[in-house]
Amino acid sequence: MRKKGNYIILWSAYFDKKLSRSQGRRVPLRFSVENPSLTEIDKAARKLGFKTIVEPNKRYPKDWWNYKGRILIEVGKEKLKKTLILKKIGKILKEFKVQ
Predict the structure, then answer these.
(1) Taking 50 as the threshold, does the pLDDT of residue 1 lie above it?
(2) What is the pTM of this model?
């Protein structure tokens, strides 16, 4: 079901260090971590002040056989660049993994 409003979709594959760009990673290696979970990504997005919706039963199209889930970030009417948001979340994920 399509949500109303302006959302950015985040898949865990965007931040997975084990994946190549062609396999779905969207951030540079310096902002990626191994096996990021939905809860970690959700926590990082909330730390940046975003409202999130976690949908655990969704499948990433490039990895359609796995139910890894996705996160919707509500951006409202603001024009935020997805790549900038991904890098900020990746930076916070790196901090989580170091601790």
Answers:
(1) no
(2) 0.85
In the chain, the domains with their CATH numbers are: 7-98 (3.30.56.30)
Distances (CA, A) of 21 to 34, 47, 71: 14, 26, 20
Q: Which of 90, 86, 11, 97 is nearest to 54 (CA)?
A: 11
Helix, strand, or coil (residue 70) = strand
Tens digit of pLDDT for each residue in 25-67?
A: 899 999 999 989 999 999 999 999 999 999 998 888 777 777 7
**Cross-strand pairs, 8:** 73
